[in-house]
Design a protein that fits this description.
single chain, 472 residues, Rossmann fold, 3 domains, nine-stranded mixed β-sheet, seven-stranded mixed β-sheet, 29% helix, globular, binds magnesium ion
């Protein structure tokens, strides 16, 4: 039988098919199969030769500290785990226009100023465009080597001869190699180019940063294959309508994955935000019903955000549950617990939940703050304006203490909050926490609801009456 000259690869899941089809059997998507020439890759017919065997070593070998290249941009260095690692490959993903090129130009500029050899290769913009941007960012004098190129071969040749320490490829989706028949931007091209560049990083000890665009459903287009290849995946996210941007580690072989870096986009590019809580709480007005300040934790850093809820009669038959910045399944759980354990009914009511400022919360510790915001909206009574809320709700309605209460409370105290509505950790931890900020202990969700209800039933939120309901 003659050997097949090509096969068909699904651009969505990467499954290989022998024949073309309209629909991929594996993932069920339509029109995603693209033909790829097989070339020398198909070596299935060759006889297996006896070759080199692997060497085994102990787990307890000598491990020198990873050589790191610190950019001096604290927010960036924290997310990478203390600086870029030599011989590693990084993927920075994000929506178009979110500021990936700006961030990486600033990073390379700083690294170059610190004496490292850097190269910035743009496949999307001309050198003139990048130079103009550099001028605006005040980086014209920084010795970054710049090139505009999309073909992989000349790029690799250039890098081989100039041997930079850090290379930025903006973006991986624009690159193509003539060794493949597929068009630029297809899975095959993205995978082949990423593979070659990762190999270059390992071989020469350079750090290669690949920029990748994210599709609407949040996947790096071209797609997940690159995530597996690289050592770290960082996402740059934010709302176009807001000034702040968040760099989040999604995978990191050399550092933690729960750290975030916060930046603010302005006239002169991205600037670091050392105190994100102040930024997210900026513009918070007088205490209004339906708002609760959540003392959260992002990696090692406490971040305060405002959670807003609105419970309103449903205009149409099926009530709506809309969430921005939190998991909708988690909201459904909190609503169910409020119904079942506290007797608050949401039948025929729309529930809207929003995390102010376009921030995204991933912690279950936000449960209690969400419940407090919802209860406050249901009874139309503001929560104490000087209180932060945190705690995890279990299905039984119990409220559990969460990790690092001390860090959360310290941040709240620093920003001028006077008390915390939370579950107090047992023993020494609890005593230490109460030293930082007075705590209103909530052991179970009905506790919270009865306090909100009490303050709503009194004439109004005058100081003395409020303090009856919210005494510690
Ligand atoms: P860019 O880095 O080109 O985004 P990406 O590479 O992720 O597609 O950022 C483009 C946006 O950033 C653009 O909408 C303009 C804005 N911007 C500023 O607000 N200030 C600046 O100094 C720069 C360089 C860009
Ligand atoms: Mg760009």
């Amino acid at each position: 039988m003659p050997k097949p000259k090509s096969h068909f690869v699904c651009q969505s899941c990467g499954t290989v098919h022998g024949k073309w089809a309209g629909r991929c059997d594996a993932c069920g998507t339509w029109n995603t199969l693209v033909e790829e020439a097989l070339g020398q890759l198909a070596s299935s017919g060759t006889r297996r030769k006896k070759g080199r065997a692997v060497d085994f070593v102990d787990l307890g070998g000598e491990t020198p500290d990873l050589p790191r290249m610190s950019s001096g941009i604290t927010e960036f260095d924290r997310v990478t785990g203390g600086g870029l690692v030599t011989g590693s490959a990084l993927l920075v993903g994000g929506d178009p226009g979110i500021g990936k090129s700006t961030l990486l130009l600033q990073v390379t500029g700083r690294l170059a100023a610190a004496g490292l050899k850097t190269a910035y290769i743009s496949g999307e913009e001309s050198t003139g465009q990048v130079q103009r941007r550099a001028k605006r960012l005040g980086l014209s004098e920084n010795p970054v080597s710049l090139a505009a190129e999309t073909s992989l071969r000349p790029i690799l040749d250039g890098l081989m001869s100039s041997k930079p320490d850090v290379v930025v490829i903006d973006s991986i989706q624009t690159l193509w190699t003539d060794q493949l028949g597929a068009a630029p931007g297809t899975v095959a091209q993205v995978r082949a180019c990423a593979q070659e560049l990762t190999r270059f990083a390992k071989k020469t000890g350079a750090c290669v940063i690949l920029v990748g665009h994210v599709t609407k459903d949040g996947q790096i287009a071209g797609p997940r294959v690159v995530e597996h290849m690289v050592d770290a995946v960082l996402y740059f996210e934010g709302e176009k309508s807001h000034q702040f941007r968040i760099l989040r580690a999604h995978k990191n072989r050399f550092g933690p994955t729960d750290e975030i870096g916060v930046f603010e986009m302005g006239e002169g590019g991205l600037s670091e935000v050392a105190n994100p809580s102040a930024l997210f709480l900026d513009g918070r007005g007088d205490a209004a019903s339906g708002a609760a300040v959540f003392a959260g934790l992002e990696g090692t850093r406490p971040v305060l955000t405002e959670i807003q809820a609105l419970v309103a009669p449903a205009a149409f038959g099926t009530p709506r549950r809309a969430v921005v910045g939190w998991e909708s399944s988690r909201l459904a759980m909190v609503l169910a617990v409020l119904e079942a354990r506290c007797g608050v009914s949401f039948a025929g009511k729309d529930v809207y939940l929003n995390v102010a400022g376009g921030f995204r919360i991933n912690e279950p510790a936000a449960d209690l703050a969400v419940a407090a915001a919802i209860a406050s909206s249901v009874f139309d009574i503001p929560l104490p304006a000087d209180a932060v809320v945190f705690g995890e709700i279990s299905l039984s309605g119990d409220v559990r203490p969460v990790s690092r209460s001390d860090a959360r409370l310290k941040e709240a105290a620093k920003l001028g909050f006077g008390r915390a509505i939370a579950a107090i950790p047992k023993g020494k931890l609890g005593e230490a926490a109460a030293q930082i900020l007075p705590m209103i202990a909530i052991k179970a969700l009905p506790d919270l609801i009865s306090r909100v209800e009490t303050s709503a039933n009194e004439l109004g939120p005058t100081d003395s009456l409020e303090d009856v309901a919210w005494a510690a």
